[in-house]
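INFO  loader      accepted 1 record
INFO  loader      residues=305
INFO  predictor   begin
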Amino acid sequence: MKHPTIAVLGSLNLDFTLQVPRIPRAGETLTSVGSYVQFGGKGGNQAIAAARAGGKVFMIGCLGKEDHGRSYLEHLRAEGIDTCGVLSAEETTGSAWILVDERGENLIVVTPGANRLLGESQVEANAEQIRASDALLVQLESPIEAVRRASQIAREAGVQVILNPSPCPQGVRKLGLFADVWIVNEHEAEQVSGLPFGLLVENRAAVLKELQASVLVVTRGSASTIVLNSDGRVFEAIPPKITPVDTVGAGDSFSGMLAVCLSRGMSFGDAVDRANTAGALATLKFGAQASIPCAAEVDDWIRGR
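INFO  predictor   done
INFO  writer      dumping tokens
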């Protein structure tokens, strides 16, 4: 089976997670029932998801030079990820502060740290690796200028660009972002299209043209994933029925798996089915990266359903 090369440009964070009985209201103090620290960041999560899905991953990002940053670099290498594109900076490694309640729902606040130093010059220094890849996978926890330039390099080289515009900023439609495949949740779909979800489906051709995209993939948690194609086709893929314990990292597992499957030449139906399964399995364990399934786990689930 082909092991496609996936270039991932994105954030690398330390995740500080607190388990709470429920998400607190404004001004309320709760006592945590558990806590842990793990490696995270949407870029790192998606890179590891792509690697565990069977991709050869080249990571572009920034880490601090302190112990956390050095440990994260070794962690990526242990996952088989090429870290030649990861800059060690004087800034402290980025961090995320996460609350997870008893239903697996979460609340996240991110401190960018070294991630904010990822710029166009670093992208240019790794342009050949981007051009040599089967796909470029990007998110929006990194500076927009770096994301935009990497996407431009990839598109000019005929490399598929896959964008997960998360976290989705206000005015995202004015940022000049483009990709062949956009992966969004239902709320993000409304932000990037400027339309309520029902109208988005009806006006998909115009929306995809504005986004300069071939496909818009809309994930909806336990509800069916909707895939809108520029040729007018629409289809749904139903994810596995599970009881989540922690939804952190589910979307990143989906994105990493989808990038690898599409780069292998799978049909969109099969690729989304595997990505749905990877995302669902990621909710069965705590933590963003510890929960990301490998290809064999996804195979076993699909064969056993």
